[in-house]
Amino acid sequence: MKKSILIAALFSFFYNNAQTVAKENGENKEVTVYTTAENTDFKMTLSASVKFAAAGQPLETEIAVFVDPTKTFQTFIGIGGAITDASAEVFAKLSKAKQQEFLQAYYSTTNGIGYSLARTTIHSSDFLTNSYTYVAEGDAELKTFNIDHDAQYRIPLIKQATAIAGKLTMYVSPWSPPAFMKTNGAMLQGGKLKPEFYQSWANYYAKFIKAYEKEGIPIWGLTIQNEPMATQRWESCIYTAEEERDFLKDYLGPTMEKEGLGNKKIIVWDHNRDLMNHRANVIFDDPKASKYAWGMGFHWYENWTGGEPMFENVKKVQEAYPTKKLIFTEGCVEKFDSNKYQLWANGERYGRSMINDFSNGSVAWTDWNILLDQNGGPNHVGNFCFAPVHANTLTDELIYTPSYYYIGHFSKFIRPNAKRVSSVSSRSQLLTTSFMNEDGKVITVVMNQGDKEAAYNLCVGSKATAVVIPAHAIQTLVY
User: Fold this and answer.
1) 308-357 pLDDT per residue, tens
2) In 3D, which of 277, 329, 274 has the Cα closest to residue 299?
3) CATH 2.60.40.1180 location in the chain
């Protein structure tokens, strides 16, 4: 009897010790899988729970995603969208119940997708009912400056979103100086900032930031100019690389420091990936300008010529200027069509961009309008577009598109201050990126671009687990 008890005790000891060792080495560690897939009911759905086990050399016939948490890269700041006048106008038309549903859907980490980042405009862009500025026409001294316009819709929405999120990293962008400051005498159709108004315009940024902070809205950073190489039929202003460099080093940078705002992150370019390398060279190679530039923002619209997204350009800037930060500042699906609310390719466009941009060094990612109406607006020049969420203001209905869920696979699980870690796929049909949160949890996102379901092994060191991803799907794996 005593012998059997001893044997049982020894067995228990060695078994428990083996379990502890296995756990420390990753065996039996649970991997929680969330899936969104076309032609299914999966929308960020908890679809599987699997465990790691010891694994040997992967075979060429197998598909694998390799993650190495010991290889770390950039620190993650956040994911979010732009709180525009258009979004705020539409939000105000919703019932209180729908407003709360909307706020929870975007900004709650438990009930929604946990946005932690936001962008807003310095006076008007194209997405609103009518153009406006914060000063009377011709007031170069900015004596009439006020943000009363924003107090009706935009500021209340920002405050409500912040209350749900707990904290929003907010940055701001202008689309055009006031008409009197420009060579074409109009806020629309391009034109340039007149040299005699460089200082006045620099002061304008400082006044805006101080006015918003007085309202209790902390401003983390600013971009110098939205899309500085595009003459648009809406608010726009052209800066060559040299003009943006000189405005930054001689006016905006010094003014921000003089006004006690030197801690604000100044972001250059804020336009497409195609010309970002040239802009980086001109500005970052100038020591006086570079000292004011925190980093570079970029958009995804370079495919307007019919080409493919130029993800490699992001990597080239990161390699050339490793001390500068990269942030995706705007993307949306153009040419609104209500028949395409649920077009799956729109969501995949987000997934493909986010995986590539993060893997190439981006620290943050910002969608365009967080909310638009059933017409893809309001937009005062008819530039109607998609948002991840639309509101039918006639029926008080919220419409969640595939883009919302694709973004959520990143924003809900990857949290501020996470570190990107090495993550690669052995097949081109699967895209992947991974981050480690501050709590030690690894978040791996896998996207299947293919028309067929794929079985793959998630490999971490000498451990692996088998996962199945449906066709045209995205998964987040938490472990």
Assistant:
1) 999 999 999 999 999 999 999 999 999 999 999 999 999 999 999 999 99
2) 329
3) 29-74+421-478
Fold of 29-74+421-478: Immunoglobulin-like (2.60.40)
Q: What is the pLDDT of residue 6?
A: 33
Pick from 431, 444, 437: which is nearest to 477 by CA?
A: 444
**pLDDT tens profile 68-114:** 999 999 999 999 999 999 999 999 999 999 999 999 999 999 999 99
The architecture (CATH level 2) of 78-415 comes to Alpha-Beta Barrel (3.20)
Contact present, 268 and 296 (Cβ < 8 Å): yes
Whether 389 contacts 399, CB under 8 Å: yes
Q: What residue ranges of the chain have pLDDT lower than 70? A: 1-27
Sequence-distant (6+) residues with CB within 8 A of 52 are: 26, 27, 28, 29, 31, 460, 463, 464, 465, 479
Residues listed for the chain: 479
* 190 token code pair: 């391009």
Give start-end residues of each CATH 3.20.20.80 domain in the chain.
78-415
The predicted pLDDT at position 24 comes to 41
E-state strands within 152-261: 169-174, 221-223
Distances, alpha carbon 417 to alpha carbons 186, 268, 425, in Å: 42, 23, 24
Residue 477, amino acid: L
Kindly report the number of other CB atoms within 10 A of residue 229's CB atom: 18
Backbone conformation region of residue 234, classed left if phi is above 0, alpha if psi is from -120 to 50, else beta: beta
Which residues neighbour 312 within 8 Å (Cβ) at sequence distance 6 or greater?
360
